[in-house]
Design a protein that fits this description.
- This protein has about 120 residues and is an all-alpha fold.
- The protein folds into two domains: about 5-80, no CATH class; about 85-115.
- Helix content is about 85%, strand content about 0%.
- It has helices spanning about 5-50, 55-75, 85-95, 95-115.
- Helix 1 (about 5-50) packs across helix 2 (about 55-75).
- The longest helix is centred in the N-terminal third of the chain and has 49 residues, at about 5-50.
Length: about 120
């Protein structure tokens, strides 16, 4: 069995699971969109006798504008520092000796990984 065949057969299961999950998410998203449409239609029908035809549509448009504004502003409040920026700030806070020790440790780990005895592979 060639390497590409082995990789292909070993990835068939996870790929089909991801495909099924993507289909389920697409069906759920379409259903959610339909539910929102019918909810808005019911809200429009309920508001029309109370506030009038034009005011009911304006109220629903205003509600959508508020949801849009919230969707645009909320991610800014929950923004976390990226991994790269956090690593840079941590690296800048290290002393010179700590930086040298980290470099030395990385060199030793690289040497240890590269000098491991490799087992011979069987060829079919």
């Amino acid at each position: 069995m060639s390497l590409s065949d082995y990789i292909g057969t070993s990835l068939d299961g996870p790929i089909s699971a991801v495909r099924r999950q993507a289909i389920a998410i697409a069906v759920a998203a379409a259903s959610a969109v339909c539910a929102v449409i019918f909810l808005l239609w019911a809200a429009l029908l309920a508001l029309e006798p109370l506030v009038g035809v034009i005011s009911a549509r304006l109220l629903i448009a205003f509600a959508f504008a508020m949801v849009t504004a919230a969707a645009m502003l909320l991610p800014r409040y929950f923004h976390t520092e990226s991994v790269i920026a956090r690593a840079r700030s941590e690296a800048e806070s290290l002393t010179r000796d700590e930086k040298l020790a980290m470099i030395f440790e990385a060199v030793l780990m690289g040497f240890a990984l590269s000098s491991r005895r490799k087992t011979p592979q069987k060829h079919d």
